[in-house]
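Your task
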Amino acid sequence: MNWTEFFAPVWLSVKIAVITSIIVFILATCVAKLMAGRKFPGYSLLETVLMLPLVLPPTVVGFVLLVILGRRSWIGELYERFTEQTILFTWGSAVIAAVVVAFPLVYRTVKAGFEEVDRDLENAARAQGASELQVLWYVTLPLASRALAAGFVLGFARGLGEFGATIMVAGNIPGRTQTVPTAIYVAVDGGNMTLAWMWVISIIVISALMLMFVNRRS
């Protein structure tokens, strides 16, 4: 067993999953708070756009990101001009892909939690002189804590297991962009079942530990 070869994708996958879960949790929580319990012109259209990555094949999401972030796009060109590097085929592009794919899952979960919060309790806090920030921090977030925890776990799990969009925008470069899912695919394709099983077990253990931690905190 080449332990360097084994641990490189594991470490990269965990790093991508942690960063993805933090970014997508913050974004989804902010958007869900704005969208929960409200109706306005264009609400259905905006909701459809936010949820679209959930129903699209990951390879389609990856292709769209490939076009948006590529060297011929204004985003890719601007990034390359300032950093002298490309966005694509880096671990950062894997984070972007994971965030886009994970966002609908986290958003939907957190939004459901916000919509279940009793509005009378929020109004009672306001009547006692609490500011909107205090209502959010001391009333809304604690009451929606289970949904928030579930959303964070979903974001972590989706970032850890993302394959289709990641391989489109980040590729499968050993030591640079190779994550555990892509490494498993290559190992199975090459007939190295022992290494594939080791990576599978590692992802199961990491996911189980994450679930145990969140359940204990809840």
In short: The two ends are 38 Å apart (CA to CA).
